[in-house]
Amino acid sequence: MKKAVNEQYGGVEQIKIIETELPKISNGEVLVKVEAAGLNPKDILVRKGKFKRFTGNKFPQGVGYDFSGTIEDPKNSTFQKGEKVFGMVNGWRGRCCAEYVDVKAKELYQMPENISFEAAAGVPLAGQTALQAIRDQGKITKGSQILINGASGGVGTLAIQIAKELGGEVTTVSSSKNLELCSSFGADHTISYETTQLLELGQSYDIFFDVFGNYSFRKMEGLLKNKGIYITTVPKADIIKEQFSNLFRSKKARLVVVRSNERDLRWFSQKIAEGKIKPVVDQVFDFGEIQAAQTYIESKRAKGKVIVKMNT
Ligand SMILES: NC(=O)c1ccc[n+]([C@@H]2O[C@H](COP(=O)([O-])OP(=O)(O)OC[C@H]3O[C@@H](n4cnc5c(N)ncnc54)[C@H](OP(=O)(O)O)[C@@H]3O)[C@@H](O)[C@H]2O)c1
């Protein structure tokens, strides 16, 4: 089968498509024939060697963490051969930009019937990040006021819809050109970081979800209500420290670290089937264009998700 790999740490030129054997699966795993794979900033950070501590120095290393496709071998799971699924592999062994992927049965779920494989492939990593941040870390309730920074990207466009679905009043932060895009996904208020300083808003929030990750808790705590919660996606040293201080203050600082699980994928499958959440695809690239697809993600200008289609 064909599989995208990084031959070394470095630039996009390190990504190659190689021929390799089908992955072997053990108990608790299934084999999926991949139709489409989602691209994420994690792919870029891993390729550049930013997480060497976890990814090691053995090459080639597989690429890609989320996917959609059909069950090729259900092994001993409850899935059926041919069933349409979407999911995300946990951990640091990327491998979803490939014709087949071995994945734990609890890291995938039946994908909704009303969307394409391309749309489904972009949901598991970005969507579960947003859901786990807003629902589990932010404890959003009806009427919560939430400010989302980086609202127009892969995580952000789903975060807006999740926050609305869970009853929040949503304010988004994006560039000026994406204000309308954020409104179209349900934002109640939109702010451009090009014309407005967040610290001068004169407004306070129950939740500040820093998807883009360029504001620290210390800088933003003045924007939080008493008992407000700051959540970031970026594991910088200060957030690790701030989390230890949560016990001693009413405002909390949290880091979201996404984990794929059946319960959250089921949540998306149902909400998408009901038309309450709409996956947002910016561009679909062919498998052979994976270097260009990663270059686009690296530009940090994606509006929604960037997808690689396998069967082209
Ligand atoms: N901890 C975890 O488990 C986890 C999981 C998923 C993602 N993440 C992290 O979350 C971050 C976002 O991921 P993503 O998939 O949403 O990325 P993405 O899709 O590549 O984000 C692109 C978006 O970033 C926005 N952006 C660029 N500069 C900005 C700025 N200065 N202020 C606000 N927004 C800006 C752009 O909007 P404009 O063009 O409108 O500026 C664009 O829409 C990444 O750092 C990623 O590594 C972490």
CATH topology type of the largest domain: Quinone Oxidoreductase, Chain A, domain 1
**General shape:** globular
Going by helix content, strand content and strand pairing, the class is alpha/beta
Indicate how many domains the architecture comprises: 2
Which small-molecule ligands are present, each listed once? NADP nicotinamide-adenine-dinucleotide phosphate
| Residues in β-strands, percent | 25-35%
CATH superfamily of the largest domain: Medium-chain alcohol dehydrogenases, catalytic domain
Q: What is the CATH C-level name of the largest domain?
A: Alpha Beta
Biggest β-sheet strands, sense, barrel: 7 strands, mixed
Average pLDDT over all residues: 97
Spatial separation of the terminal alpha carbons = 14 Å
Looking at the overall shape, the CATH architecture of the largest domain is: Alpha-Beta Complex
Task: Please compute the radius of gyration using only Cα atoms.
Answer: 19 Å
Helix percent band = 25-40%
Number of helices: 10
How many beta-strand segments? 16
Which regions have little confidence, pLDDT < 50, spanning 5+ residues? Answer: none
Succession of helices and strands? EEEHHEEEEEHHEHEHEEHEHEHEHE
**What oligomeric state best describes the polypeptide chains here?**
single chain
